[in-house]
Amino acid sequence: MPKTRLTWKWKLTIVLVVLFMFMIGFVISQSGNEWIRDKIVEKFEALPVSEQRDSSWANYYLAEAWWAGFTGKTTQAMDMYKQFCGVAKDAKGKDPIDDQTGRVGKLVGLCSPKGETGWGPMHPRAPEAFYSGLDLFDTETSASSQYIHREIFNYYRLFYTWAVDHSPDHKPHPKFNVYWNKIMFRLKRDRIYWPPDIDRNAPLALPAPKEEE
To answer: In this structure, is the dihedral angle defined by the CA atoms of residues 199, 200, 201 and 207, taken in order, positive or negative?
Structure first.
């Protein structure tokens, strides 16, 4: 009985299916996520400094951070969010925000040390990025409530206290209350010691827009 030969159409279909399967495996792999992240950062850093903050690469970066978290790469996703906000650990493993004093030192990540350029805490989506990392960490790990509370304090210190001191208008980040309200809702059943440098009412912050409440 003669052997049935595959037509060129079937061969092409098989090749395309194999390539598609490879691409799916690549984008959900650790190395794939890291490669995409690095390419986005490379494009961001190649821009003139004056164009970096408004660049649409921020949206691609945060989408990749979400994807990393969605595919189980929690550590990578949280690190990406920290890098975006400028609060990654430095070369010595030190956090830019001092636990004892609440002081925000030199920023570390995808922005300048004082946050004037790049993404960092002045970016319009920075509070969202910080909250996404906090939410991911809270739901995907077994971290202690003490650590979660520390991250919440740092959200306030970065987008309220630091923003008042360093933003051009000397006001909290415009999106501060959007996510502070969400945080306060999550904490309503927690027993929590509030450090003296934090005012839960955040009187200087703009009200959260109704469509985002």
So the answer is: positive
Question: Which residue has tokens 């986005």?
Answer: 40
Q: What interhelical angle do 176-186 and 126-140 show, nearest 10?
A: 20
As given in the structure block, the two tokens for residue 184 are 């306060």
Decide if 177 contacts 206 (C-beta within 8 A): yes
**CB contact set of 172 (below 8 Å; sequence gap of 6+):** 159, 160, 163, 164, 202, 204, 205, 206
Q: Is 118 helix (H, G, I), strand (E, B) or coil?
A: strand
Predicted confidence (pLDDT) per residue in 105-126, tens digit? 899 999 999 999 999 999 999 9
Q: Where are the domains positioned within the chain? A: 8-212
Q: How far apart are CA 116 and CA 118, in angstroms?
A: 7
58-110 residue pLDDT tens = 999 999 999 999 888 888 999 999 999 999 998 888 889 988 888 998 999 99
How buried is residue 169: exposed, middle or buried, by Cβ count under 10 Å (0-12/13-18/19+)?
exposed
Find residue 17's DSSP bridge partners: none
